[in-house]
Design goal:
- This protein has 6 helices and 13 strands.
- The protein has about 290 residues and is of the alpha+beta class.
- The protein folds into 2 domains: about 140 residues, no CATH class; about 120 residues, Protein Transport Mog1p, Chain A (3-Layer(aba) Sandwich).
- An 8-stranded antiparallel sheet has the order 1-2-3-4-8-7-6-5, with helices on both faces.
- The chain is elongated, with a radius of gyration of 24 Å.
Length: about 290
């Protein structure tokens, strides 16, 4: 009898690590969802089933999911991302990513940095590539659902709404965004960022952190239609007035042909780029700095 117990204990001691290894391998890289991984409940809309293993990637394992692009997420204080897949009765599959970052401002920024479709009302704001992709932000999460084949918009929206229902509500966009003058603003062009690299595909400043931004600074970039001309307004909130003046000096000394006007008020730096009359550019700068 004692011998049989010893055999069972030996088999159990061997099988447990083996089963754990098999479970990790089946997750395809990230760790299986654990207690505290956002969100705690799984949102599955009618007609869909969650398939495969839910996977969670953290700051160490994110490279397995977005090899070569992790920096774009670290720039918004990335914490972890949960990945799920859903399948309907026809075999259509939608992959959903739920990105958790440090603050609602970071979630909003990540959303604006990846915005590429038509605006849609979900969460605190969303956008959609019809039939293919839907993204939104809510509290300190950014959610992106992508179909592997074209689907009715209602199907994507149903999945997104089911996920939104499991997330904490709330979250306000950064106050700096509300400083943007509204006249001529192209709303869907707004990009909120903490590092210069996050907006360089829209405005290239040399790729060497000309403004000296770090994770504690804030910036917003937006397009404006001024008399038919499209210009860009850059607004940066630095640590103090000295840092703002240093940023303005760096811009003014960089020899950029499309830089029309700059200005500083307190810790705020504003600059206008494009083909526009200098007087109009200075008016836009003044409007952005007015209430500081």
């Amino acid at each position: 009898m004692g011998s049989a117990r010893s055999v069972r204990r030996a088999i159990g001691a061997w099988m447990l690590p083996a089963l754990l290894l098999l479970l990790l391998a089946s997750c395809g890289g990230g760790q299986p969802s654990a207690t505290g991984a956002p969100p705690d409940a799984v949102g599955v809309p009618p007609g869909w089933t969650e398939v495969g293993d839910e996977r969670v990637y953290d700051k160490q394992s994110i490279y397995e999911l977005v090899n070569g692009q992790a920096g774009a997420y670290f720039a918004y204080n990335f914490e972890q991302v949960t990945v799920r897949s859903y399948e309907d009765e026809t075999g259509a599959v939608v992959d959903a990513e739920i990105w958790q970052v440090a603050t609602p401002s970071d979630a909003y920024g990540l959303f604006t940095n990846n915005r590429a479709g038509e605006g849609i009302e979900i969460g605190n704001g969303g956008d959609m590539d019809p039939g293919r992709r839907l993204a939104f932000w809510q509290d300190r999460t950014y959610v992106r659902a992508r179909a592997r084949q074209e689907l009715p918009d209602e199907a994507l929206l149903g999945i997104a709404e089911a996920i939104a229902g499991t997330l904490p509500s709330g979250g306000e966009r950064p106050a700096l965004v509300d400083r943007l003058p509204t006249g001529g603003l192209v709303p869907e062009s707004v990009i909120y960022f903490r590092r210069e690299s996050s907006m360089q595909s829209e405005l290239w400043l040399g790729g060497e952190n000309l403004l000296g931004m770090d994770i504690d600074t804030e910036g917003v970039l937006a397009r404006y239609d001024i008399g038919g001309a499209v210009v860009r307004l850059l607004l940066v909130k630095d640590a103090d007035t000295e840092a703002a003046h240093a940023g303005m000096s760096a811009l003014d000394s960089a020899g950029m042909s499309d830089l029309i006007a700059t200005g500083v008020q307190g810790p705020l730096l504003a600059a206008v780029f494009g083909d526009i009359d200098e007087g109009d550019a200075r008016s836009l700068v003044a409007d952005a700095l007015l209430s500081e």
